[in-house]
Structure formats: C-alpha cells, structure tokens
# Entry
Amino acid sequence: MCYSVGAPRGRPAFPVLLELASFPKAASPEAFGNLLESYVPLLIYVLIVLGLVGTVASLSFVLGPSKPTKTKLAPYESGIIPETPAMRRLSVRFYLTAMLFIIFDVEAVFFYPWAVLMRQLKWFGLIEMFVFMGVLLVALAYIWRNGGFDWD
# Structure
C-alpha cells in the first residue's frame, strides 16, 4: 500500500494505491471454510425471520375474517358513502410527476456522500458537484419548460 506523509499511523491516505503483488494467487480450502462459517449467524437470522413471517401470515389467514359480506367489502371513507368507485384510473400526469419526484429525490441522495468527503475531494469534488448540479438544473428547466409540472 502507498501511505502519504502526515497520514495517521495505520490508516492509508486517500487515494489508496494497491499493488498487484499483495493479492493472494489462490484461496486455500481452509480460508473458504472460515468464510462460510462467518455467515452462519446471518443464515440463522434469515431462517428466524422467514419462520416468523410464515407464522404471522398463517395466523392472519387462520384467524382472519372468513365470511366477507357486501357491507364488509364496501370502502369506508370517514363515514361518507362513496359516490365513485374506489378503483378509478389515474392521469398519466400523476405517474409522470411521481417519476420526476423519484428521479430528483434519488439524485439528491448523492449530495450526502459529497458533503462528507468534501475535504478529501478538494477542488475536483467541488467542480464535479457543480457539474452534477448543472445537469440537474438543465433537466429541471427542460421539464418545466415542456410543461411537466402542469396539471391542466
């Protein structure tokens, strides 16, 4: 590994350069067995969770209502008798707005790691994030200009 002068002892500086000679050529069967043994607690946890989910689903099926009537199946909306069917078609604009929200929300998640690593990334990270924000603003302006947010 390549360590920088002034880095804390035992911790590599950013970026870490790895030498190809430091990788093992082949894993021994003993190392593979140890790796599988380390996943045993995770396997036990998964089995417990699946068993619990199966138990709860079975209990809800057994103990749940067994005689659905027209009154029980009718939608209840705060005591008001519904005038339209509960299953109605939604406008494509609704789905478009939902997709735009998800896209911009997911892209906003990239700001958190950037803020955490800001000092390590220095000018490169700052310039790259401004480019990223510029692309987001161009996309937002394009959507706004083409009426992606209009409900009419």
Notes: Helices lie at 29-38, 40-63, 70-73, 92-108, 111-116, 118-145. The CA atoms of residues 114 and 125 lie 7 Å apart. The radius of gyration is 28 Å. The mean pLDDT is 78.
